[in-house]
Amino acid sequence: MAIQRTFSIIKPDATKRNLTGKIVAKFEEAGLRVIASKRIHLTKAQAGVFYAVHKERPFYDELCEFMSSEPIVVQVLEGEDAIAKNREVMGATNPAEAADGTIRKEFALSIGENSVHGSDAPETAAEEIAYFFAGLELVG
Ligand code: DAT
Ligand code: MG
To answer: Any idea which residues are catalytic in this one (predicted)?
Structure first.
């Protein structure tokens, strides 16, 4: 597998509980390198654009409300097979189903307040990175 880039969000439930460093440590321990990082506070409309793929789902409004409730940390992670590796370190969407040692198992509060986002494919990774970062901000 080649070196890839993926997009990550440390979500409001995690920034609020001051877990940013502990979550970044999990990425780094897995061999993922943070090549861009910034703390931002989304509007509900901006969260809605980011999660537009879920707009027909019953939890969409709650999701956008949550994602704009507190600051988040958006990052680009780089490494071997980074998209799959990040999904592995994150754990299952529902923390009740997440494997031991994963971020969501250790830190998530619920299926909605689940501490992290990670891209699920190369196309979405590229789109998500471009939504939040200019090319010059990626320092590999
Ligand atoms: P993931 O974040 O693991 O890629 P997803 O893309 O299916 O999961 O959903 C995006 C986010 O939406 C997820 O992180 C939390 C929220 N979500 C998903 N399913 C939910 C549900 N059944 N109830 C409430 N929120 C949900
Ligand atoms: Mg997803």
So the answer is: 117 (pros-phosphohistidine intermediate)
Q: Residue ranges for the binding site? A: 11, 59, 87, 93, 104, 114
Query: Which range of residues forms the domain containing residue 128?
Result: 3-137
Backbone angles phi, psi at 64, to 5 degrees: -70, -40
State the distance from the centre of ligand 1 to the C-alpha of 94, rounded, in angstroms.
Answer: 8
* Residue 2 zone, left/alpha/beta (φ > 0; ψ -120 to 50; rest): beta
Report yes or no: 33 and 80 within 8 Å, Cβ to Cβ. Answer: no
pLDDT in tens, the chain (140 residues): 799 999 999 999 999 999 999 999 999 999 999 999 999 999 999 999 999 999 999 999 999 999 999 999 999 999 999 999 999 999 999 999 999 999 999 999 999 999 999 999 999 999 999 999 999 999 99
Indicate if ipTM > 0.85: yes
- The residues assigned a catalytic role are 117
43: domain CATH number is: 3.30.70.141
